[in-house]
Amino acid sequence: MRDFSYLRANSIDAARQAAALPGAMLLAGGTTLIDLAKCGVTEPDTVVDITHLKGLDTVTVDDQGAMIGALARMSSVADDADIKSRFPAVSEALWQAASAQLRNMATIGGNLMQRTRCPYFRDPANFPACNKRSPGSGCSAIGGVTRGHAVLGTSEACIATYPGDLATALVAFDAIVHLGDRQIATDDFFLLPDATPDREHAIAPGEMITAIGIPASAAARRSTYLKVRDRQSYEFAAAGAAVGVEFEADGRTIKDLRVALGGVATKPWRARAVEEALKGKLLEPDTVRRASLLAIEGAVDHGANQYKIELAPRVVARAILKVGETA
Amino acid sequence: MTVHEIRTRHCDSKRGDASDGAVLAEAVGGRLSRVDGPAKITGAAKYAVEQQLDGLSHAVLVESTIAAGRVRSIDTAAAESAPGVLLVLTPDNVLRLNTATDWLGTPPPDAPYYPLARDITFSGQHVAAVVAESFEQAVAAAALVKVSYDEMAAIVDLSDPKAGDGIPIDAMTKEWGDAQAAFASAPVRICAAYNTPREYQTPLEPHGLIAHWEGDQLTVWEPSQWLDGMARTYAEWFGVPFENVRLISPYIGGGFGSKAFAYGYSAVAAIAAKMLGRPVKLAVTRPQTFTAYGGRAATRQTVALGADAEGRIQSIVHRGVNETSVDGMWVEPLGSVTSIMYATPNFSSRQNVVRVNTVVPGALRAPGENPSAFGIESAIDELADEVGIDPLEIRLRNYAEQDPEVKKPWSTRQLREAYAAGAEAFGWSKRTPEPRSMRDGNQLIGWGVAAGTYPVRRAYGEAVVRILADGSVEVESSSIDMGQGTYTILAQTAAEVVGVPAENVVVKLGDSRYPRAGVTGGSRLAGVMTGAVYKAATAALDQLVGLAISDPNSPFHALQANTLVVTKGRIASPRGDGPEVSITELLGSVGRDHIEAMGDTMPANSTVEDRYKNYTTIATALSHTEGDYSRHSWCAHFIEVRVDEDFGTVRVSRVVSALDSGRLYNPKLAESQWRGGIIMGIGQALLEEGIVDRRHGRIVNNNLADYLIATNADIPDIEVISVGIPDPHSSVLGGKGVGELGIVGVAPAIANAVFHATGKRVRDLPITLEKLI
Description:
Chain B: This is Xanthine dehydrogenase YagR molybdenum-binding subunit. Chain B: One of its GO terms (molecular function) is oxidoreductase activity. The complex is a heterodimer of chains A (327) and B (773). By secondary structure, chain A is an alpha+beta fold. Among the domains of chain A are: 5-49, Uridine Diphospho-n-acetylenolpyruvylglucosamine Reductase, domain 2 (2-Layer Sandwich), CATH 3.30.43; 218-325, CO dehydrogenase flavoprotein, C-terminal domain (Enolase-like, domain 1, 2-Layer Sandwich). Helices cover 29% and strands 18% of the residues of chain A. In chain A, β6 and β7 form a beta hairpin. In chain A, α5 (88-95) runs antiparallel to α8 and α12 (285-292) packs antiparallel against α13 (307-325). The longest helix of chain A is centred in the last third of the chain and has 19 residues, at 307-325. The model of chain A has no long low-confidence stretch (mean pLDDT 96). Chain B has a seven-stranded mixed sheet with strand order 4-8-2-16-13-14-15. Chain B is globular. The longest helix of chain B has 26 residues, at 525-550. Chain B has three domains: 6-45 and 458-616, Aldehyde oxidase/xanthine dehydrogenase, molybdopterin binding domain (Aldehyde Oxidoreductase, domain 4); 48-153 and 208-283, Aldehyde oxidase/xanthine dehydrogenase, a/b hammerhead (Aldehyde Oxidoreductase, domain 3); 299-456 and 625-771, Aldehyde oxidase/xanthine dehydrogenase, molybdopterin binding domain (Aldehyde Oxidoreductase, domain 4, 2-Layer Sandwich). The model of chain B is unreliable at 9-22 (pLDDT under 50). In chain B, α14 (667-686) crosses α15. Classes of the chains: A alpha+beta (327), B alpha+beta (773). Chains A and B meet through α13 of A and α3 and β31 of B.
């Protein structure tokens, strides 16, 4: 880790001005920034500490939806009674992410900004080629160890998986990222790698996440996040699904359905084809399993990650059936 | 200079050992809690690299980014001019050391040893090191060292076409009868290949050291499973007398076989300290723990079993291969369980070792026995399925009544008792035989059984026991406690022999200035050191009683007794006549401030050279089949798994293991070690695998987020049952090995359970979800 300047911001405007300087990075919980600095992936000239800003760590929930301050800790959002009752998928995604120690440090805004776990991205000394780190240098992952890599949304430049769980739930329920006065849908906030995998978020220098808004919906209230992995805890998803359902008055016909996938794509992956296929249908196992196959339309494997194409629809189907069962 | 000592603060007094009637917690066999526990949980325990020394400087390693080739040049200019940099070590300026005697006692070649070299044989090899005033400065400067290479094609692993068949290791060959012919003519035959990947010790405390020279005296604070062996290595490297090297290691945050040797980075730190005339700290990073020393070698085995129609084995043909490095030799004895678990009239086992571009592999909990058991204990399960009999029944049907290899009786073998006790507690009789016959919703349930074993390795140790005028007792030994409970059981041993409460015993370990000990490995330390302390404590007690009887100033002098007894620190006649005085009062009346005795487990006629060799190499360790008996610990694991039929995820939901480690010096701690082994076995079965990038010959999951070990959430309640009986042929006090036994057989028990759950036989560890989906 090389030397850097440390600035403590005492207002949002000051933080945004400082963050606009070349080589400046915002510091919140630090669980990503410090980790990547130790790996030699990030080498900020200036670290702008925003943890002392007031009023950015609140969680408010009403009939319109939830508003979560960017500095709210993952653990406090996961434990919030209103989040648990009105957005169970959000709470479940949070408590299944990372370890308790990390959840106590990491913030919601920082969580959206977390970087991929691609081992090639994380080891610049041994793998100089990485289009995400050094645009145009190539991709070391393609042709290498790809068990954890994405099968959806990949490009010739990058196959790195978006690792987070929370954002999968946010995308499913049309959450909005607040960048001060500017607002952007989470689905648009995360960018596909295409030819520019170094650009991961629709955020400009000098912009800062201030809050996440999640509109209230019946589907969000009846939702779940299902995370599948080899290890029971503290592992990134082999495949994950955030699912919410709303039934018609008959209690069986699907009125609204939300499906998003985690752990299998280069960004949090909304599976609208599954949603459309099941709206208006009865929630029955065979129907659900068939429709869930649409979740991996267009998937491309790179060898060792082929299993994700098998696994992801099964995770989606199980999650839909699970929320469908719970009354 | 810090001297480490542990005083027993608290004991579960009056709590007896349930298995043994009414043993007091503080006596041998009692359930005394770990006496070092409070120091560890309060943070008072200082580990090696936490020592604070004046003038401490910090070394950071630069590692090769290629797996094979040669360093063309190293540009150190930028690093040398970076802030705070004191020294940049490269192959060009590193001190020339002597090659040291290896752990087997092999005399070294008369050749120099350089811990930094230009020839590269694996990715992650040390190429240079930067020493600076602060750790951060050293890290920053190390990133400025520019190394250029001439790269060559690497042999990345056992499956590399360039790897070839390897080198036959004749010493591993075991044969009797005519195994090939008997297999060919057997009515029932199974033959399959079983593979285990590279696995790593992943101790919670990464490796590292502080090296400090004062003249030609070297002090090293370094976590160590073998103070005397490592001190010898440093002494020979630098050409100074053994006595000039002091190794200090009071606490070790897990070793699992990886902390018994001084490695290349140890030499780098000691060289830097010598060149700078300042103490140097070198802390190995977590990623470096995957290449700075070796984990368990990847292995391949083929097991062929020929049997009659009732499943009685007629022949075992076994072939094994393990990887080693290009310039080092590691043999993982793959036929070690294969040859002794079952009775067979015909047997053949051979092993090759294949050189690949890796760091030389090393010991990881039960080296040899662990992968060996995965092969034979999976194969016997396949045979049971082929013949159509219960997996437990086939093991009983082929029970080895004596050691089939050396044809000697077992010293003790409570394996039949283990099968019975484990099956009863698990409810094995309720198992339905067909695969996929037990289910709970989406979860397929499987029950598997496998046996394990580990030889009783015997070596030597010394101890001093000192009875002080304040009534306390001191024990000193250069052996170590890496969490297994040495402090505790040695306090119990001395307390019982001398006749004082355990809380009056102070145990001092982890300093090479104390009486010597061999390696803490191969599950031998408890048996060796309780024996040494027993002898030393007995000698000290004899002196005390002798003084009390014979000294003219003793209150017992007039009694004309033949002997006296010491209970709870008070001395009295066994008949109860005469006075009763405290140790303090006696030593005061005879004018002594302490009594001291040395005890050891060495043969009586041992020379000084014998002793040095015994404590600093394993050359003279006693074979487990020496004399009239074959000595081993035994166990049987009964394991339930739940496999999600859609996702392929495997969760262990129940474990019952019955184990024979002979007499337990402290059942609470032995059970804890068994459970620890079982937990590591669950990780090995389901999660652990060093994954190599085949283009670069490099382990890419070299951190604890990507190299998965079991977490608490992966571990169910584990029931362990002791079925051992005292084994007088294995140790002074009747114990057999504990630490390694628990892991042996866990992986095949889980693989067998997965087969029972799913009908799929997974022969490549770990059993990850894509193998079942």
